[in-house]
Design brief:
The complex is a heterodimer of chains A (160) and B (433). Chain A has 160 residues and is mainly alpha-helical. Helices cover 83% and strands 0% of the residues of chain A. Chain A has helices at 3-7, 12-35, 39-71, 76-102, 105-138, 142-151. Classes of the chains: A mainly alpha (160), B mainly alpha (433). At the A-B interface, helix 2, helix 4 and helix 5 of A face helix 2, helix 6, helix 11 and helix 12 of B.
């Protein structure tokens, strides 16, 4: 996920979907470390995962969603739904963090299973519908919005 | 281009919409097992009315029941377009389908033409309402992806299956004493199995196989063409098979070639799925993955057995080859996929709907606390043991039919128990919120 790769992705859909892929990789790595009881690595990768998730959420809620609603007020409902699902996922990640601290693999894996499906049904809706709509609504403004999005600062893992 | 006007990322249907279908399915599984136990080994070979009754308890009462429930849940996610009036539509479809299957099975079992006639109206109406609602949702879909286009094809196939089914049933009602015209029956089951069940599983696999196990995505060419190619193959096969315009030698060769084409299509799907699963990023080999793998291996066995049968007459002419292939498809392929999926969908839906109500932020159970993995593992073991027993039934019905039917009855009972306890957890938390 370096800058050069990003610049080639001029559409909202390809750019934001690549964030999803990146988070998936981190999710898996963290889960695999938990499963093999390597808690040091698990914690490190989990923190990175949460950071990337938060960064992606912020890019959406601070830049992408407002730009869509500004252009078409009908986008308000769907983006509010997406915000709500971000909250659901934050709660799950908070609970997972506790399991990492307690080194409780069973509970972590039960929660990660839940997060995985939550995350993917959320991503599916965004990739199949919302981002496609964004490509159309933003048209030539996509570059500008993408530039604004990538200027969003990583917060660090807020919940940690 | 999609317009946001009907964009519905919001509407996951009420939890009762999919769950009424999921909860009903195991009852039909238990019923099918009881009917088989009562009928004994005689019902195994060829199309006796009892075999037809058991087959429809399984294909309509169990398999289609779950698939319709799952579609009502998955349409808003993959297509951004829910079923219209989901509560009303699901109540009507579920009621008509349940009563229709019961009427059909009892009409066949007790030789009552009027019950079959009632079943034709109930099932015809119920499935038409579902096909209409799903078509409405799929036509207005905001998304255009392989899953959505595959589901469109599956709905077309379901409609054709229903028409052929009504045609066969009409014949049954009008001439109860005559043997059922074999070619219409064959066309009906080919569309039902390969068209409706096969294509729907393929379409859903495009989304869920990468989702659950983090495998690579299915190849682009496959996503774009496979379901359409199977549809075209089925259409050609049906015209050649039913119309028989050309003289019989060419007709037979053409039918055979088209059947090969369909068998290859299904085998490629199974092979690619197994390959993708072997490339998964997630190291956890969970039980849904095992159910899916079992399904794909069964599908490969089913198609291979059929192909080998065409070249090896002593296998091809064996009277129970059709039974064995049917069992491999129904239990090995369709039921395995369904069980694997239910154990992901149900705990997730329970969690999701509780989460939505959870304004006081009480601690919710995670998916593995809603249906414990151990109980899913028991179900997997029971289901795995069932498959060799079913092969045994085809070879030596007298020995194997009772153990196989009993085992499937128990396995359906366990499914019912697992769904029931998940619902109890939902209710417990819901009332405390």
């Amino acid at each position: 996920m370096d800058g050069t790769q990003r610049l080639e992705m001029d559409t909202i859909s390809s750019n934001f979907a690549s964030d999803h892929l990146h988070c998936d990789v981190l999710f898996c790595r963290a889960e695999n470390y938990v499963q093999s009881n390597d808690w040091q690595q698990a914690k490190k990768v989990f923190i990175e995962f949460v950071e990337e998730m938060e960064w992606h959420f912020t890019k959406e809620t601070d830049v992408l969603f407002p730009s869509l609603v500004e252009r078409n007020s009908n986008a308000l409902g769907p983006t509010q739904m997406m915000r709500m699902e971000h909250e659901d996922m934050r709660q799950l990640m908070e609970d997972m963090q506790k399991q990492v601290d307690n080194r409780d693999a069973d509970n972590y894996l039960g929660l990660s299973e839940t997060l995985l499906i939550m995350l993917h049904q959320h991503n599916t809706k965004e990739e199949n519908i919302l981002y496609q709509m964004a490509d159309g609504l933003l048209g030539a403004d996509q570059r500008e919005i993408l530039a604004q999005a990538s200027a969003v600062k990583k917060q660090g893992a807020v919940i940690l | 281009m999609s317009t946001p006007s009907r964009l519905s990322l919001t509407q996951a249907p009420p939890i009762s919409v999919p769950l009424r279908f999921f909860f009903t399915a195991p009852f039909f599984g238990i019923l099918a097992a009881l009917v088989q136990i009562n009928a004994g080994p005689d019902a195994v070979s060829q199309w006796t009315p009892t075999t037809l009754a058991i087959t429809h308890l399984l294909t309509l009462g169990y398999i289609s029941m779950v698939m319709i429930g799952a579609m009502s849940q998955i349409l808003p996610v993959v297509a951004g377009s829910p079923l219209p009036r989901p509560l009303l539509v699901s109540s009507v479809v579920h009621t008509l389908l349940t009563l229709g299957v019961l009427a059909l099975a009892s009409g066949l079992l007790f030789g009552r033409g009027e019950a079959v006639l009632i079943a034709m109206f109930l099932l015809g109406a119920g499935l038409t309402v579902f096909i209409g609602a799903a078509a409405y949702s799929l036509i207005l879909a905001n998304a255009d992806n392989a899953t959505v286009s595959g589901m469109r094809v599956a709905i077309v196939a379901l409609a054709i299956t229903v028409v052929f089914g009504l045609r066969v049933a009409a014949e049954h009602v009008l001439h109860l004493d005559l043997p059922i015209a074999k070619s219409w029956t064959h066309a009906h089951l080919t569309w039902g199995f390969i068209g409706w069940v096969g294509i729907l599983v393929i379409s859903v696999a495009y989304e869920v196989v990468p989702m659950f196990q983090m495998t690579p995505k299915y190849p682009q060419w496959m996503q774009r063409w496979m379901t359409k190619m199977i549809l075209v193959g089925l259409l050609f096969w049906t015209s050649v098979y039913l119309l028989a315009i050309i003289d019989s030698t060419i007709w037979n060769i053409l039918t055979l070639l088209l059947s090969f084409y369909l068998a290859i299509g299904l085998s490629v799907f199974a092979g690619v799925t197994l390959y993708l699963q072997s490339q998964r990023q997630r190291r956890i080999a969970d039980l849904t993955l095992k159910f899916w793998r079992l399904a794909m291996v069964s599908l490969l066995l089913c198609t291979s057995l059929w192909v080998v049968g065409q070249f090896w007459p002593s296998l091809g002419n064996w009277r129970n080859i059709g039974y064995l292939n049917g069992m491999l498809f129904i239990f090995g392929f369709a039921v395995s996929v369904i069980i694997g999926m239910l154990y992901k969908i149900i705990p997730f839906l329970v969690w999701l709907h509780l989460q939505r109500q959870n304004t006081r932020r009480i601690k919710l159970p995670n998916m593995k606390e809603i249906i414990p993995e151990q109980r899913i593992r028991w179900h997997f073991v029971l289901h795995l043991m069932l498959l060799p027993l079913l092969a045994g039934v085809a070879i030596k019905p007298v020995w194997f039919v009772y153990p196989a039917a009993t085992l499937f009855g128990i396995s359906s009972l366990l499914l019912l128990f697992n769904i029931f306890t998940a619902l109890r957890i939902y209710q417990g938390y819901y009332t405390s919120m």
